[in-house]
Amino acid sequence: MELRQLRYFIEVAQELHFGKAAEKLFISQSALSQQIQLLEEEIGVDLFVRAKRIKQRKVELTEVGLSFLEDAMQVIRQSELAIEKARNLGQSTNELRVGFFKLALREWIVEMMHEVSRLIPDVEVKIMEFPTVESIQDGLLEYKIDLGMTLLPLKDESLAYKVYKTDHLHVIMSEYHPLASSDTIQLEGLKQEKWVIINKPLHPFYDYIERMCQKAGFSREKNIVQEVSSHEMMCSLVSLNIGIAFMPSLFDLSKEPGIVSKKVLRNSLVPSEIEVNHAIAWRKKQVSPLVKTVIQMIG
Known about the structure:
Blueprint: H1 3-15, H2 18-25, H3 29-43, H4 50-55, H5 63-89, E1 95-101, H6 106-119, E2 124-130, H7 133-141, E3 147-151, E4 159-174, E5 184-186, E6 195-198, H8 206-215, E7 224-228, H9 231-239, E8 245-248, E9 259-265, E10 275-283, H10 289-297
Parallel strand pairs: 1-2, 1-3, 5-9, 6-7
Antiparallel strand pairs: 3-10, 4-8, 4-9, 4-10
Helix pairs in contact: 1-2, 1-3, 1-5, 2-3
Pfam families: HTH_1, LysR_substrate
Protein name: LysR family transcriptional regulator
Domain HTH lysR-type: 1-62
């Protein structure tokens, strides 16, 4: 069995059409059919329903084919990771690939690059932007980056981390909002509020916030009035009193007129602020001397 045959099978299984799959694979339909037939003969079972294909010219996976598809995709994925890993290990040891998520504070990225350049001048730092916190961690697992600026918790036990900033979740609102004069705000007291949020696909910790809100007895879903793609636009809408928003306390709001920032406490029984931990993450296995050195420099 060849990886090529598995790729052919996956394409047919996803397209459910031999002609379309052949076009995508840049081979003839007859050659594709022959490879699928050889694969089925080697395995000893039908992966596609033969009767429907012959009589109705319809492509449908058998139950065995559905199960085999999952395993085949995993095999291809692992082979791609192995290739990527080998390539990356063979790269220059003087290159450090650092990933950061789209909405990360640029000051922190510049600060880290400056420290690395100052203490290890021979290192070439390559900055790579990822859309979300989760995609940063995927980038580490897929050997696309060496270090990732992310948020806790981590999604995989094979990753290690070191916290470099501890932040707190504040709520921002118009200076004319009824709660603007409050010193602190209980999370449970926000259940009736209208919300302005960063687009969910870009939001670095949307799910984390939702879990906190649900523990406080409410969900924001029905009360989201605007989704935006930047903190600047979010602040502008909040200043117009369209809604309120969560914002990390480390963000500088001094240049955002008409907005106040308030501490948020989990609840009256646990009067503590909601922490947001920013961390540098890396793979636990095969840590290079360069990565170890940079980790020791941080924090």
